[in-house]
Amino acid sequence: MTVDLTKLVHNAEDIGFSDLSKVGLRGQKDEGQVCTLISRDLSGSDDLNVSLGRILPGQHHLCHHHPDASEFYVVIAGTPIVHLNGVEHRARPGDGIYIPRGTSHGITNDTDVVVELVVGMSKPADWEFVSDE
């Protein structure tokens, strides 16, 4: 069996980050950046999506939920506030945070340090984003 590394291996420096593009219930812009590394389109994945995320100082990733997918965060750098169904958790590097489907969640970076995260979804693409704020 031949392995096609061009479909299986992706690097964030090569792909680059893009700004989040969702809009909240009052028209506010979602803030943060994402670089997708594993997905249906990039890798042919049929069961998950993995990205690197960045929340810059002062940014807020809108509270939202996914009725059709669970998610996780692994904090690599920074100490953001993670919002989980109205409860705030001050995260730190090394935290793994599981977000069951339907759970409202968001991130606030109220520090001067860039927050870096590994973000995973239980679907390879096309999950629903429902804004909660």
Automatic annotation (TrEMBL):
UniProt-recorded name of the protein: Cupin type-2 domain-containing protein
What is one Pfam family matched by this protein? Cupin_2
User: Which ranges carry the Cupin type-2 domain?
Assistant: 54-119
Q: Which SUPFAM superfamilies match?
A: RmlC-like cupins
Q: Which UniProt keywords apply?
A: Metal-binding
> Does Metal-binding show up as a keyword for this record?
yes
An MF annotation (GO) of this entry: metal ion binding
